[in-house]
Design brief:
binds pyridoxal-5'-phosphate; Aspartate Aminotransferase, domain 1; 3-stranded antiparallel β-sheet; 17 helices; alpha/beta; about 15% strand; 8-stranded mixed β-sheet
Length: about 400
């Protein structure tokens, strides 16, 4: 009886909710002996627990402030720290009114979507893209137009035609979503010329860019590409970053920077969402940064993940079939494998039998596709396990064809 009442009352979004494809696969992964290349979690072995404990001294020193409700836009000392620390990346010290601290950068998607989207509006996304983003945008009834990627990131050369076509179909295109560095899931980085081109297109078409950059600090080879935000003169870029991958995702502390008016609107939406991001968490993160630990931790985790990346590269090179296609990512957490002629959904179940898991490519294609692709993550499992993981994956591939 009560179910019927609920079913009649759910909103359209509530009625159509489906579990995320990744969560659906998770239930198969909980077997003893499983090597997981699936979840994109940071490595808990290097969480800076002692330093965080030390940072908790801020509770004694500033408890009256950080155990209280805080400003919706964020804890001022943390905002100030981020603005200075990020100045080289942002091209300048951004003003406090241009920044909002958020509860994870996941919340940025939701806030930005609330500010920007009416039901049926279109967002341009990369193909493949991060399903957490499309999930948040779908919650606001967005539709997606996708742009394929190659090793240099989004194929911006295709974008003008795609935008033109969408316009002619009377789609209301609200923004372009790009994960610019070591993309989740592909590991690709948008090259500097493409960043420039993307900005030009954004200006020509009057379509803003959402530059999502949670992995940008995790570069293992080469030099940083300039952020699109730092090249932008017209205020059409909003930039999101997070402490999740460079410190600990349990902090749920992230931030967004952009034009004051947009940020202000996001703050107003956030007031109705959670009043403010945990001030306690912001205080701890601030103190950790103030003590200089973030700056010393970054080279440590870069070296740590570089080793894991190299171990995965060596294992894949040694054990995977020679027609497997992938690029070695210059940073981040992910390898994107293309296995010609292999359906990775079918492969997934064979791989589970062999005790290795990954995420199937289709999870990253909001409009369908990715059947021959998969994402393998090197951040979480132990590097010593990668040769065995690659061997199992290769065996699962041959199981499929036998
Ligand atoms: C591309 C991308 N954006 C945003 C997020 C959300 O991160 P958080 O909410 O922990 O900051 C993730 C998490 O994996 C991600 O991969």
């Amino acid at each position: 009886m009560s179910q019927q009442v609920w079913d009649e009352l759910y909103s359209e979004v509530g009625t159509k909710l489906t579990p995320s494809p990744i969560r659906e696969l998770v239930k198969y992964m909980k077997k003893p002996g499983m090597i997981s290349l699936a979840g994109g979690n940071p490595d808990p072995e290097i969480f800076p627990m002692r330093e965080f404990q030390e940072s908790a001294a801020i509770i004694t020193e500033r408890g009256k402030e950080i155990l209280q409700y805080g400003a919706t836009g964020g804890f001022d000392p943390l905002k100030e720290y981020i603005a200075k620390w990020m100045a080289a990346r942002m091209g300048r010290i951004t003003a406090p009114a241009e920044m909002c601290i958020t509860t994870g950068s996941q919340q940025v998607m939701d806030l930005f979507a609330a500010v920007m989207l009416d039901p049926g509006d279109v967002v341009i996304v990369e193909e493949p893209t991060y399903p957490g983003a499309t999930h948040a945008l779908k919650n606001r009834k967005a539709r997606f137009v996708t742009v394929p990627c190659d090793a240099e990131g989004m194929r911006v050369d295709l974008l003008p035609d795609i935008l033109e076509q969408a316009r002619q179909g009377r789609d209301r295109i609200k923004f372009i979503y790009s994960i610019v560095n070591f993309q989740n899931p592909s590991g690709y980085t948008l090259s500097a010329p493409r960043r420039k081109k993307l900005l030009e297109i954004s200006e020509n078409f009057g379509v803003p860019i959402f530059e999502d950059d949670p992995y940008g600090h995790l570069r293992y080879d080469g030099d940083h590409e300039p952020t699109i935000f730092s090249m932008d003169k017209s205020g059409l870029v909003i930039y999101a970053c997070s402490f999740s991958k460079i410190l600990a995702p349990g902090t749920r502390v992230a931030w967004v920077v952009g034009q004051e008016d947009v940020i202000n609107k996001m703050i107003m939406i956030k007031q109705g969402a959670d009043l403010c991001t945990s001030v306690l968490a912001q205080g701890l993160v601030y103190e950790y940064c103030r003590l200089g630990y973030l700056e010393s931790f970054l080279p440590k985790i870069q070296a740590h993940y570089k080793k894991k990346r190299d171990a995965m590269d060596a294992a894949f090179r040694e054990f995977l079939p020679s027609n497997t296609r992938y690029e070695t990512p210059a940073g981040g957490f992910f390898y994107w494998l293309t296995l010609p002629g292999v359906n990775t959904r079918d492969l997934f179940f064979k791989a589970i039998e062999r005790n290795v898991s990954f995420v199937t490519g289709d999870a990253f294609f909001p409009n369908g596709g990715g059947e021959e692709d998969l994402r393998a993550c090197f951040s979480y499992a132990r590097a010593e396990e990668f040769p065995e993981a690659a061997k199992r994956l290769a065996l699962a591939i041959s199981d499929l064809s036998s």
